[in-house]
Design a protein that fits this description.
The chain is α+β, with helices and mostly antiparallel strands and 274 residues long. It is 25% helix and 31% strand. The chain contains five helices and eleven strands; from the N terminus they run E-E-E-E-E-E-H-H-E-H-E-E-H-E-E-H.
Amino acid sequence: MAVVTDPERIGYISYRLETGRLSYVELSTLSKNLRHDGRAPHQLRPLTIQRGFVGNAPGSVLITAGGTSVLCTASVDDAVPEWLAGRGKGWITAEYNMLPGSTRPRRRRERDGRLDGRTSEIQRLIGRSLRAVANLEALGERTIAVDCDVLAADGGTRTLSITGALVAVVDAIRSTGAPIVAERFPLTEPVAAVSVGIVVGGAVLDLDYAEDVAAAVDMNVVMTAGGQFIEVQGTGERSTFSNEQLVEMLALATKGITELAAAQRTSLGDAWPW
């Protein structure tokens, strides 16, 4: 899926009602007004990905975007859930949590398996996103357990968790002896996620907390590096949004995820399997 990389313009996807197809269109020039943190509307927050952050997990990543930091670990169990046993397939599951000190005021710790609705929703999203690009037969009867723990929250914790988890899972799978060959690797392609929204009347990429609170429209997009959508979660928080605004937000998300996938590739280096 092509995207114009000129910082003054961006291409986006237009849905043609008459043909029922998505097509690429270069459209309006984005606003040159800078956001409160100095970014242009189409810019991601500064991103770092540090592999091997935890020695006890075969896959571990500390991923940071602006003021948000998430520790993603991936562990391997040579067994699968009982309902999947004997089918010759593996499984990928995820847990998500926000540490008490990740927010101000302090977030109360979730105990005794009592997860609030938001936590349950996010960890299911992380698991679905990873399984969408998994060849579970190639994984064999193994379970990859992903844990995403938010150390500091300033918006985009779920999307950053997915982006970091992909890198951790690649390293965890490599620890099993899986070959670094795309046709045989248990993940078919990279996946990443990013937030977009309408803030002060304009579409912006990778919202921080201040923008998320002020957003008229908030959307989380999960995509493969090849431009295929896995999940789109969009909500008119304070207003409705038009088809034109929708396709502009999807274009921003596509641009952002292309850049996130490039950062994943740089982080993995020779371990990149695709």
